[in-house]
UniProtKB/TrEMBL annotation:
Its EC number is 3.5.1.25. Binds 1 divalent metal cation per subunit. Belongs to the metallo-dependent hydrolases superfamily. NagA family. This is N-acetylglucosamine-6-phosphate deacetylase. The keyword Transferase does not apply. Its cofactor is a divalent metal cation.
Length: 385
């Protein structure tokens, strides 16, 4: 761990990934908390030859880490989880909550919204309780409910303007009206944990849905006479698809399929992380459900369903480049620029451009994390010779 860099710092010699492409032997100038277009003569120079410099990662779907749950943790516990993900390169993070009692979710939204207001989180995401019991995954079936617009509005308002996304099974009663409500409120309506048909999914997209919650997971597979939601979500350019690239949720060929059909501009790599991310194997709670993490894979004790992930975005980045063979520039769009755009924070983060926050990640030649900077402060300072 390290503190703030000098007021003017030049990161030199690395391959720098910019919105226009990769610059060999590039330079990034940091002035206080922001990226600058020019460097004063007395700026400190950090030689990063042999490294990559990419924008800080933006995770729009994350339930916790470092032993802390964003659904049930105190403010201090949530901050521990945030710090864990920052140490893995995620400099912008949305706090996601799983299904719970409405009153409980309202109270927890109040806690998380304060962390948004003080700049620790980028917003709130409600994944449930408005999801299908047929595709509930690691959500308590007893606490699920139809997406009545009045209930959806109540949760959004509990976030005091910080709600960024709500995941819905839009085929349920009230689903389409709730999508329209969310669109009117400026909140992302995400289709997920759904048993919808192809036609029902198309209807939800026309109503204003713009994101597919962890595409392929917790939804019907593609069939030759029943194309289902996946086909509708892949074919429509208005939809950005979330992908969990941990080697458990998706086969590499499926990840490649999504990139090929959506293009890098409509993919968002997420963690869907739970408490165990960056913490280790053991027994945990996901909402009211018991979870066992073994060999880094989280599953419900009862039933064995996958219960989120223990993924961090540095691992997702490295897998995408080294195993899935996705071009580095495309991975950067998926892990930084695209989620920043969806969350409405791309004026500040998501790319290395003058005027934006000095949020960046340093990777070695094998794409292993070597440094993290957030708003000009080194969270992990790279070791240089």
């Amino acid at each position: 761990m390290a503190g703030r860099a000098a007021d003017s710092t030049v990161l030199a010699g690395a391959r720098v990934v910019l919105p226009t492409g990769t610059v060999e032997d590039g330079r990034v100038t940091v002035e206080s908390t922001r990226i600058s277009g020019t460097a004063p003569e007395d700026a400190r120079v950090v030689d990063l030859t042999g490294h990559w410099v990419v924008p800080g990662f933006v995770d729009m779907h994350n339930h916790g880490g470092g032993g802390a749950s964003f659904t049930s943790g105190t403010a201090d516990e949530v901050l521990d989880g945030i710090r864990t993900h920052r140490e893995h390169g995620t400099t912008t993070l949305v706090g996601s909550m799983v299904t719970g009692e409405m009153d409980f979710l309202v109270r927890q939204a109040g806690i998380l919204s304060e962390l948004v207001e003080q700049g620790d989180l980028a917003g709130l995401h409600f994944e449930g309780p408005f999801i299908s019991p047929c595709r509930k995954g690691a959500h308590s079936e007893q606490l699920l409910r139809y997406p009545d617009p009045a209930d959806v509005r109540r949760l959004v308002e509990a976030g005091r303007g910080t709600a960024r996304m709500v995941t819905l099974a839009t085929e349920l009663p009230g689903g389409i009206d709730s999508v329209r409500l969310l669109a009117d409120l400026g909140v992302i309506a995400a289709i997920g944990h759904t048993d919808a048909t192809y036609a029902q999914t198309v209807e939800a997209i026309e109503a204003g849905a713009t994101v597919a919650t962890h595409l392929f997971n917790a939804m019907p597979p593609i069939a030759h006479r029943e194309p289902g939601p996946i086909t509708a979500l892949l074919e429509d350019d208005r939809i950005t698809v979330e992908l969990i690239n941990d080697g458990t949720h998706l086969h590499p060929a499926v990840l490649e399929l999504a990139y090929r059909h959506k293009g890098a501009g409509r993919v968002a790599l997420i963690t869907d992380a739970m408490d165990a991310a960056g913490f280790g194997d053991g027994e945990y709670q996901l909402g009211p459900l018991a979870v066992e993490v073994r060999d880094g894979v989280a599953r419900l004790v009862e039933g064995g369903s996958i219960a989120g992930s223990t993924l961090t975005l540095d691992t997702a980045f490295r897998r995408a480049v080294t195993i899935d063979r996705i071009p580095v520039e495309d991975v950067v769009r998926s892990i930084s620029a695209n989620p920043a755009r969806l969350l409405g924070v791309d004026d500040r983060v998501g790319s290395l451009e003058p005027g934006k926050d000095a949020d960046l990640v340093v990777l070695d030649e094998d794409f292993v994390l070597a440094g993290v900077m957030r708003k000009g402060e080194w969270i992990i300072e790279p070791k240089t010779s």
